[in-house]
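Next up, a specimen:

>
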Amino acid sequence: MRKEVLGILCSGRGTNLESIIKAQKQGEIRAEIAVVLTDKPEAKALERAAQAGIAHHCVDRKACATREEFEEKLVAALEEAGVTLVVLAGFMRILSPYFVRKFCGRILNIHPSLLPSFGGAHAHRDVLAYGVKVSGCTIHFVDEGMDSGPIILQAAVPVMDDDTEDTLAARVLEQEHILYPRAIALYVDGRLKVEGRHVTILK
């Protein structure tokens, strides 16, 4: 079986990155984490990668003249590290078809709602505004749409009457930290079968 090599893309605190690193160090994810990339130099994810001894650097979107230049630099860094699976862990950029095709079927993302409901950048706000009683998180393959790829795993959490965006986000984040390492492990172990929109978990 081919050894998978992970490249993790982050934009912020890197708490999902931390959960992935922990699972990898405990042997739950049988793959190398080769590089952590961020699009913002102030992203705390860079500190977390440094503390774990993982190669890391920022491809600053603001320093790139175009989106194309930015994504070409990301792709170059991932390919140089030998990455076979791209993991988006709080990466707040919509990736173009160019990037998606470079790693077709090999990009995972986590989203803080039960897709296909409440896609986009403001899931918790939209959940609360709509008045639904259940929210959660979704891990999915990335395709050329926004939050539209085949779903791998989901976890539900209740929405409380007195929830704010922050309290709901904290409850969902607890499930994200459990679910994302599990989904990555399933991919790495070759246990995901994708047929159209349907993802089957193999025994």
